Here is the input.
Amino acid sequence: MKFTAPAGPNPIDQGKVIGHPHDRIDGRAKVTGTAAYAYERNSLAPNAAYGVILGSAIATGTITRIDTRRAEASPGVLGVVTYKNAGKLKKSKSHAARLLAGPNVEHFDQTVALVVAETFEQARDAAKLVEVAYAPTKGRYDLAAEKDNAVTPKAGPFGPPDTKVGDFDSAFAGSPVQIDSTYTTPAHSHMMMEPPASIAAWHGDQLLIWTSNQMIAWAVRDTSEILGIRHEKIHISSPFIGGGFGAKLWVRSDAILAALGARLVKRPVKVALCRSQVPNNTTHRPATIQRIRIGAGSDGKILAIAHDSWSGNLNSFREERAGAQTRLLYAGANRQVTHKLAALDLPEGNAMRAPGEAVGHLSLEVAMDELAEKLNLDPVQLRILNDIQYDPEKGPARPFSSRKLVECLREGAQKFGWSKRNAKPAQIRDGQWLIGLGMASALRNNPTQPSAARVKIDKKGHNTVETDMTDIGTGSYTVLAQTAAEMMGVPLHHVTVKLAESHYPVSCGSGGQFGGNSSTSGVYAACTLLRAKLAQQAGWDPETTTFEDGKMAFSAQSKSLAEAAGPKGMSAEDKIDFADTQKKWAQASFGAHFVEVAVHRVSGETRIRRVLGVFAAGRILNPKTARSQLLGAMAMGIGAALMEELAVDKRFGYFVNHDLAEYHVPVHADIPHTEVVMLEELDDKSSPMKAKGVGELGICGIGAAVANAIYNATGIRLRDYPFTPDKLLDHLPPV
Ligand code: MOS
Here is the structure.
């Protein structure tokens, strides 16, 4: 199905199943421990041996000697994989570095060996007996020090790295009110609940990998490229995933080394990274330096806006697109967004929840607060004044598919009691606590991706959806079932959803907050075809045949779906293709965050007191799972503001705090009651579902709202994230 023009009325509009807060259909399996995650699929590989990964102890240099003899002689050990016996491996285009080092080492904790043994303990013990000698070389580990060596990266899938409209420099110079601020954000770790894990087995020349991966087709493609075996020989399965946040968009060392280990010992091999391997062996969100300049008239209208961002990566792999939201969020005739990339020798930096926008808002939305103060304007008002209903770079020819930013701001301000805020900082006290309010806008691009599905109906009228889409904890099983139930006119329990097998039709996968909207659109397409086939078989007009209450009907005739499907059942497969809709319309989902903080006047500790997010993201397919996505992302954004930071050892080139005791993420005690409001909206230009992405929207802007609230509470304007108490301590008002 080609989606080329705005969607007209369609069966999804009935809203009998879609739009209802159904519990996750996989929820019971997950909470009862019966959902088999990657490392637990023992029934498929009952005699699996255990593999433990040994990572490099240096960041850059070469392995001068690697001796596996003591490890191999250790009890239970079946074999040791190193670059010496692994055969020829390629680096795929999806990876900054090879997944197995040797003899050269590209980053700290890059895999140097996999020790395979009968038990996990034997493998872990023997891994300590692998002797590796290194000749380290000097590396580059400090973004600030490499900033001046950064260059403009080549255009990637998100278009050119730099965009310029009008004449920023002269418009900024001539602006009556100016802001010029620089912000820094540190590297972040995904720290998903389930670290990467895989079981691999060879059946002849067929490779089976049961893994934890967001993008099944990419996993097949990259495994093929790395191992040099054909796509059709590779089978990937990933039905349950304990979080990904972008770290599982690509196969990592667990999958590839499990495959190599299984080939070596001629038995299935299971490999899980341990928590402390997550930051350095896998990927992270790169650190950024961001300079924001905004020039405005005394009326508050933006005349010039520039966002210049610097990030670094291993082998100059890819930049962090921190300027993404600045291209679209506010009006202003003269604008500039630039990205520069420095070569660093830290582990691979890559996508993490709302890559680009998540850290981009941390600077832009604080700069807007600084501008509002300089203008003596309310920050909500400043944003409303600078709303724009079309792409500010391309002009009115490219309107937004839908944009309810102003509605989010107004509704949020009203619900939160924003008008009671004292604009003058450091005025409100509650005992030992300084109280402040802050807010920020949220924009996250709404990419759409082709997505295919097959829908089968059996002789009993039961429907089965098959697609290689994944559910990373987001609710895919549930919204896909809701879509099929709505389309076929059956209750939810008459639909079974089967996901994440590489032999199923290729979906969009889970990423970039396109998963929910695009994959349900793929199921919509397949169901549309199945409806037409059923109608045609009955000799009825597919256009006017209706599907309701387990029956299909045409003028005065009607029959049950079981009857219509016939003794052999019926099946239809189709793919949604979004044609040039992304070109025609600027697409994003929007929101507004409001936060109340308390900062301790002696210790500088910040506590979050109240949080409200108001969002407009098209049709909400399931308010319960959508709310969970927004809530989780908001908690993650609060983490970025207050605590999350991978600390770099700039001498040796690695992330020091590699566990959850030292890499702090928010826990329940850090997050108070959070209110999430989703505005009614239908976006007929986004997809036939009229939905947009919600999975990454919530993390955009909330951290800046926290920063702005801290300023309002204390009068301290911090610009280097995260805002830990030590940064406030020296600047707090005298006690
Ligand atoms: Mo997302 S960072 O594309 O999983």
User: Anything to note?
Assistant: Residues 515-538 form the longest helix (24 residues).
